[in-house]
């Protein structure tokens, strides 16, 4: 995308992106202008954090982004890509730093890579095996969490395979599991919020889907059971205080057990669920039910999508409770997908394999959703413009 000549003469560098969304959650895909960082993907992530974080701030922060912006940087050279085990690598950019896995961005990347015929952007596109009989293609994405397999439905358009947007894109999760069910979390006096009233504790479930998440009904936080017209700022405050109370307790954090990672673990986000809505939710074909949730993560970012990683944890919790069967799909809505009234904006979570981790049951979950293009951008920075290097407005206040 060329810049007008009067702008081109004022800037020294450009960052080019394709703008997408998955169920309303932004996915800004950076394909040009990012530093050519050497090393393994995890080394690239570490160097991005220590030496090139100004790129993340300029891409994600205002004035180009916002508090809830999300990005993915294409990494065409990683150890797995160079070995031919992956087609493309990616670094995930958030408002607070660098993620290890992001499903909504993975779904967007799956579509982007299938549709991208420019080999200067996607050098290994010729390695994709387009299955004309099944009308699908597998894309292997190297994420910081590991190798992620994405199945993208395809249709032939003018002799070229493109994403079939009438069907959902699917990826297979890391092993997911429940770590606590009906866990009581004491809320210290100084941490309580107004809606909690006389209650001194909150009961929640804990699940793992790449990170640890709490799943709690809105009613358990002192709010109406329905999320029909939620007070999002008040719910955010309650979720923030609940996470603070949880993470401050070593006894509670002891429930965050990952046999594959012995490092200290913390609760990453809070999924607030709707248990009181009388509305009939749209369900995807083959699904036997649906539910709605509102997710707060990181430094109180709000996910517009149903949150793939928490979908994985919610499916694992449903399996652990005996509420779901292997192979049974379920529709998960966000406030956005519920408001639009269609199932294609929702995610579908399906348990497809049972495993054992650390002597306990775990599952692999297929997560399905759709991504759409909303634009393309060329971002520039004038040499004497300090503001456009990125700022977080919220961090300027209390």
UniProtKB/TrEMBL annotation:
Name the EC number(s): 4.2.1.77
Q: Cross-referenced InterPro entries, in alphabetical order?
A: Pro_racemase_fam
Annotated catalysed reactions: trans-3-hydroxy-L-proline = 1-pyrroline-2-carboxylate + H2O
One Pfam family here: Pro_racemase
Q: Which GO terms describe its molecular function?
A: trans-L-3-hydroxyproline dehydratase activity
As for family, the record states: Belongs to the proline racemase family.
What is this protein identified as? trans-L-3-hydroxyproline dehydratase
